[in-house]
What does this fold into?
Amino acid sequence: MAGGIIVAGFLVIALAGPVLAPQDPLAQDLGRRLSGPTRDHPFGRDSLGRDVFTRVIYGARISVVSGTAVVLAATAFGIVTGMLAGWKGGWWDETLMRITDMFLAFPSLILAMAISAILRPNLTNALLAIAVTSWPVYARIARGQVLTLRTRDYVEAARAEGATDAAILTRHLIPNAVAPILVQATVDIGNIVLISAGLSFIGFGAQPPTPEWGVMVSEGRRFLMDQWWIATFPAIAILLLVLGFNLVGDGVRDLLDPRLRKL
Amino acid sequence: MNLLRYVARRAGLTVFVIFGITLITFVISHVVPADPVVSYLGEHAPPDLVEKVRHQMGLDRPRHIQYLLYLRDLIHGNLGVSIMDNRPVSRDLAQYLPATVELSTAAMVVAIVIGVPTGIVSALYKDRWPDQVARVFALGGTSLPVFYVALLLLGLLYSRLGILPGPGQLGIYTPPPPHITGMVAVDALLSGSWATLGDALQHLILPAFVLGYYSAGLITRMTRGSLLEVLRQDYVRTARAKGVAEPRVVLRHALRNALLPTVTVIGLTYGGLLSGAVLTETIFSWPGLGRYVTNSMISVDIPAVLGVTLVIALIYSAANLIVDVLYAYLDPQIRYT
Amino acid sequence: MRRLPIGVLACILLASWAAAPGGLAAGYGPQQTVVIALDITDAVTLDPNLAYELSATMADHQMYSNLVTFARGNLTQPRPEVAQSWDVSKDGRIYTFHLKRGIVFSSGNSLTADDVVYTFQRVVSLPKDPAAWLITQMGIDDKNVSSAVTAPDPSTVVVALPKPFSPGAFLSIMANPVAGIVDSATVKAHVVNNDWGNGWLTDHSAGSGPFQLARWERQVAIELVENPRYNLGPAPQVKRIIFPNILENTVQREMLGRGDADVAWNLSAAQLAAVRSDPRLYVVQTPDLAMEYLGMDVKNVPAFAKAEVRRAVKYAIDYDGIINDLLNGNGTPLQGVIPKGLFGYEPTLWFKHDPAKAKSLLAEAGVGAGFTAELLTSTGPAAGGISSGDLAAKVKNDLGAVGITINVRQVATSELLKTYRGQQSQMVMLSWFVDYPDPDDFAKPFGDYTQKSLAWRLQYYNDPLVKLVGQAAEMQNTPERGAIYTKVNETMAQDGPFAILYQPVLSLAVSKRLQNFLFDPVNFIDFLSLTKH
It folds into this structure.
């Protein structure tokens, strides 16, 4: 479970960020801008003389927090709608599923771009936009799970005992439906980091001087050939974090249900 | 359930979805805190010119009237006039769509050509070193930011080493082929301009690879997973017991069934390609929809945003529909209600 | 059997690969072609009477001739081009242009006074014309153009201005691409649905300049080839100009390095520094007729209502730091509102970086404890090729050091303009670029709020200043005019809501294969004198 180690590492960095970081992520030193990796500045300095190592660490906080927040919001909303659709069926189901279809009919980056552009580009709005594009998948999964599980014996039994719909949902269905959602969620955090970085790259997400990794790669791309460290270290950070979550996702999937290989 | 009815139902739903999208997009794009007329005219335009042009563009009418007029035009196939381009949106789309389709399709081909064999190798050598290498490769694809890879490879392979040509669909001195489909490589092929075709293909490699790498990763994992699953099935064991040679087991019996889920992935990744195209096209100066999308959102070009939204949603829905139909057709056990 | 078609296809592909051109030329080879890598996505149309964006006007400048022009380097004195001489009436309202004889368009048609009249008609009649205001601000519109601009005979054009207008500005505008003379016969032949030929002229050319349009593929390239009928001067050595659309300046730099491009337009300050140390390349520079400024709204932020506070801001800025460190020297100091290169330019630098002085001014004004303001800037680049984000971060630092807390908000330009033009901003950071090379083009927007331009957007209503600007507008470039502009600059510096940060230097990275490279911010590259080895 190499993935677990990587992710745990990032979590630690994210939580302990300011303590670990040697410098102030926003402190400029124009005189020594664009200097390469040294002992004091292991990742070098960027175009304004800021310490890249520090900014990468602060970026870890941003990415881990954003990714988790978005996933939590998306899964919460998705589970609620999906369960509702699957349990109630009929008119509820049709309408909710058509709405999710509408969102699924969109490549996520483009929809996120549109929402960001409308709401004015900054990190919060970008995350909101990504959450909006992510929840349909969870709704679909949740609905599928409810449809499968509602015919199980224990559900029948509970109903025979007179349990309310809400009780059945919360006590029996959600815990059993969680598995595929968990798998999807872990992988999704990685995707969210990528999409968010992509949005920042084209200017629709986090803005400078925020030390978000996508912003850093975007700012550093002009210097890629000569002062490669400015864009490369944040890119490696993105790679490692996403990789870590993907591995964890794989591991969770293998662990929870080896038969679950569908998307 | 009858296949035809299924298709018809899905198509009908798609139309409904498209209309819903136009309404949503229209509503929210009018909430944008930006003025498309000023975007078009530039900062120096005096206020009276701005109002005059706003009237000429019909943007001073009440919003609901604008939407209704838009719908009416839409039904007649008219997507309106792009504000930033001063041209019909349909012409803009017709011009830029082929380049994106060409790039996405090439990327898809790359992804399949790389992904499927890698997935097969990975499954057959499960847990041994080819599998590990393949999985790292696949994971790398899905974890790397595409814009970084694009810049890096372009810098290395073009600027430093000169192995591949620079940005754009064709070299600067290469005259474009006659316009048949709008896709440069295809047009060169159809019109027999071999030199141009070669140039176009050379320019296509790097962007297609960069864009396809991400999907290649997904396809590898999918293929590996489903092939492993299929190889455990009874009919495979039967074939082996009967003495059928291993390669034949794999190719004839297992692969066909294993590729079914891969087909699903292909449909889904096509949408991902459209997203990735936005980033890739900027870096490679590829004259496709990606750049058009970004520009129209930045300058709040409402007709263009609406037009692009519709087209992308249509393509995506069509791709999903085809995949679902293919899936249902290939696997008689699955018929959706 | 199924293998065969695939194999054949593969062979075809491989063969065409090998045959791929390395330098295939349609007529003119690389030796006679200049390739300029820049971002041409802003081009909307190549119709000269409608084009307003950089790439389009640059191309139009080569394809169309004007009544007058500005000779390289001298932007204060218009020179004859199509008009060999002109007379101005005593009240400065009637201009009589005497045209040269024998000028022909690329089609072979002769250029006469009727073409000039038709050009004016197009400018004021074309709908959705962003450039029209240059002419309509003189009082000429589609209702009076037939009486304002007339052709008494084929070699004479008379322009009668309906209201007083600066003579210097008028002639400058005549040299602007918006007044590029079109071949009326050819254009009229392509009119569709009363569009004044705009549909056709958008991607074709009908001018008398040294070049004509070979093709314009949107988002791909603009290509010009020589106009063999050009007779307003000697033929250029360069026969073909290609502007390929290259969006990333990193890629522009790479193309330059590999020899695929001769000029890179959008390089950043840091990239230019790297170019200087490359023996095959050199950097060409000229001060751009533009400036980057901070605007302070005098009503939305109570502190900015006081002139002392506005001055304090100007003392707080580290001008040298910005020019030397951020811009890498690609900027020159400017604190007046008229940039270097124009008549009326004021080299005085009233404000040195002095945080102590700034703090004492703030205390004097009663805001010694500091205050907060929101700085609105765009997500794109600032003048001079640096990122607005970087510059805003520096300004935030500088102002923070004297107690003014700045919250930077970067938004898309379209949103920025909406807020700014709606008088809703607190502080803005933007650039302002020249339209025509007359000091009035800067003095009016910055100083005269009645124009509903920059001063108005920041709610800076200074009536005596308006009078001064109006006075200077009507004068020719005399010492008296200079004296008034000195006063205007002084007033803007001491009292105005604009803190001028710097004047950017326009820098191009050029291959040493190109020699005799003359370059100015109005005419851009002089292709007539350019040579390529």
